[in-house]
Amino acid sequence: MKADPAVQRGLLDLAEVDAELNRIDHRRRTAPELAEIAEAEKAVRARRDARVAVQTQLDDLDREVARQEKEIDAVRAREERDRKLLDAGAGARQVADLEHELESLVRRKAALEDDLLELMERREAVEADGQHAAVELEKAEAALAEVRHRHQENLADLDSQQARRDADRAKLVATFPEPLVAQYERKRKAKGIGAALLRARRCGACRLELDRRVISVIKETAPDEVVECEECGVILVRTAESGL
């Protein structure tokens, strides 16, 4: 394929734009915020799990408190009934039975109330844990929101850079003949680089110094003939720096 040497040199500008676009894409895919976001999300999940665990404990304790209060109410109701029977003038034998039962009920009620007090103290402690878990979750969610916001700002900046470079690329591509652009794109797709400068007999893409035979062939090739690197296959652009 033939192309004016000046047009071929323009491929270096296109290659530089493409290199910048590659760098932008790399920064987008490897942004440090991505790892921060992953860690922040992990922290949020852990804090949520902790809060759920505390809430489960509170629910269990609430059920236990309700059961204990219900049992205390039942004992009090039985105690109240027995006292009413005593006040109503029960027989001597019934009085003895009622007094014995009342003593048992009083002891039972005291034990149940002690157990209830212990449950309430435990619940108070767990509730404090729940408040702490809620605060820690709020902090973790705030940290996640902050790093996500920072990531979005950086992405917006990269998008702006890419838009400018895409516009530059479109202008450059329009200056080349279609066959040359097609060859360049094939090389770029296969190698990641479409064209590179031949400087001091070294390919700017693969960085290898070409042997004398290859240099001799290139030197004898017409300036308007498009040549490729024998090692990596990209288009080699010849200038005064090529060492030919």
From TrEMBL:
**Which residues does the UniProt record annotate as the domain C4-type zinc ribbon?**
202-236
One Pfam family matching this protein? Zn_ribbon_9
Q: Which organism is it from?
A: Actinokineospora fastidiosa
**Record's InterPro entries?**
CT398_CC_hairpin, Oxidative_Scav/Glycosyltrans, Zf-RING_7
The coiled-coil segments of this chain are: 51-157
Q: Which residues form the CT398-like coiled coil hairpin domain?
A: 14-192
Q: What is this protein called in UniProt? A: C4-type zinc ribbon domain-containing protein
Q: Which residues form the signal peptide?
A: none
Keyword Metal-binding appears in the UniProt entry = no
Superkingdom? Bacteria
Q: Mind listing the UniProt keywords for this protein, alphabetically?
A: Coiled coil
